[in-house]
Amino acid sequence: MRNDDKVMLLPEDNILYLMKKNILFQNITEKDDTFTKEELQELAKYIQLKQIGAGITVFREGTIGKSLMLVLQGTVGVYVADNKGDDILIATIQEGSFFGEMAIIHKTVRTATIKTHTDCLLGVIIEEDFWTHFSINQTFSRNLLWGINKRLTSTHLKLVQELIRSRETLLRYNEELEQEVEKKTYQLRQRDMQLLAIDRIVGIGTLAAGIAHEINNPLSIIKSGIGFIRKKLDVLDGESKYDDIVESFDKKIASIDRSINRIEKIIRSMMDFARLDVENSTTVNIGDFINNVINILAMQHSKNIEFITELHETPSILISTSDLTLCLTHVIKNAIDAIENNGRIKITASYDNNDKEIVLKIIDNGYGMSKDTIDKAFNHFFTTKRVGKGIGMGLPVTESILKGLGGDINIESKEGEGTIVTLVIPVK
Predict the structure, then answer these.
(1) Which residues pair with 77 in a beta bridge?
(2) Which of 31, 118, 136, 323 has its CA 20 to 30 A from that of 190?
(3) How far is Cα 65 from Cα 127, in angstroms, rounded to an integer?
C-alpha cells in the first residue's frame, strides 16, 4: 500500500473486507472467478487510502485525470457547471463503486466535478498501476467495464427521469402561465370595455345635458302660451255660444299638457343622466337607506308584493343620497313593474372584504327578460313598458352613476323565471 502524509492506515483484514464490497473485486458472473485472497492482498498494495470529510471537492471539472478512485465508504456526487458557473448535481456514486477511470482511459481532463456528500474513505489507484492491472488481470478489466456500463446506465436513467420530470414541470408552468395570461387579458379587456363605457356615458351625458337645455327653453314658452290661451278661454267659458269651441280647446290643451308633462319627465331623466344636479356626498348606511326606499315605493302601487330584505353588516359609504336613491328606485320600480299582481321582491346587501365593495341584489319573481332584452337594457330610451309607463332612461342613469363611482351593474334573467339585478358599489 502506498504511503504519504494523507494515507490512512487500516488493518489488512479491514482493507480486504472493504475491497470485497467494491464491484471491481466482486464476482459478477455465474463462474467462480472471484479474486483470491492472495490476489486481493497483491492489489491492496497499490491502493492508497484517503479519509475525506463531507462537502469536500475531490477534484474539479477540467483537471488532469491521473487516478482511479474507489468509494470504500460514504457517498460522493457528480457535478457539472451550468452557464453561470454553478455546480449542478447530475449523479450520485454510492459506496462500493468507483470513479475517475474515464479520464485515464481517454487520456483527457476530468469532465465533471466530484464532491463528497458524507465522510468518505476513498481508495486511490494511480494511472500507472491502473493500466498494469487492467492489462494482466482479466477479472479486474471485466469488472471495470461492467461497473462503467452499470453506472452510465444508472446515470442515463436518472437523467431521463429528470428530463421527464422537468418536462412535466415545464408543461405545468406553461399551462399555469397560459391561464394567467388569459386571466390578465380578460381583465384588461374588461377594463378597456369599462373605460369605453365610461367615455360613452360621459359623451352621451354631455349630449343629453345640451339637448335637455335646448328642449327646456322652447318648452317653457309653449307652457306659457298654453297658460295664456287657457286664460282667454276662461273669459269665453260663460257664453253658451262658445261652449263647443271651449270644450274642443280644453281637450286639445289637456292633450298638450300631458305631452308637456311627458317631455318634462324625459328632460328630468336626461338631467339625471347628465348628473347636472350635483350634491355633496354624505355618509350613508346602506341597510337603513334600502328600508327607507322600500317604504316609499311600497306605498306607490296597489299590487300584492312581499318585500324581503336580507341585509348583512356593511360599512358606511360616502355617496350622494340622490344618486343612491335614483339607483335603488329605478331598479326596484322595474322589479315592481315586472310583477303582474302578486309576487315577491327580495333585496340583499353584503360586503366583499377581498374586493372592498358592497354588493346589492334585487331579486324578483316577475316575468323576466329575454337575452335580447338584456342586451338592450342599458340602451337609452329602450323600454318594454307601455307608453307613458316608462321612457327607458332608468337603467342608463343607474349605470352612469355606478360607473362614475367605479362600480358596476349586472342583470341575470330568464323569461318566466324572474330577474336578478346586481349593483356593485366600491367602498373607498
Answers:
(1) 92, 115
(2) 323
(3) 8
Rounded-to-integer distance, Cα 422 and Cα 217, Å: 38
**What is the C-alpha separation between 206 and 259, in angstroms, rounded?**
25
pLDDT over 60 (residue 385): yes
Helical segments of 237-315, H only: 243-274, 286-298
pLDDT in tens, 48-82: 999 999 999 999 999 988 899 999 999 999 998 88
Tally of residues, the chain: 428
pTM for the full predicted model:
0.41
Strands (E), 117-272: 120-126
Is 58 within 8 Å of 52 (Cβ atoms)?
Answer: yes
Nearest Cα residue to 298 out of 309, 313, 283, 287: 309
- In the block, cell 365610461 appears at 198
Task: Give the list of residues 6+ apart from residue 219 with CB closer than 8 angstroms, or none.
Answer: 260, 263, 264, 267
In the sheet that holds 357-364, the strands lie side by side as 304-311, 342-352, 357-364, 418-426, 408-414
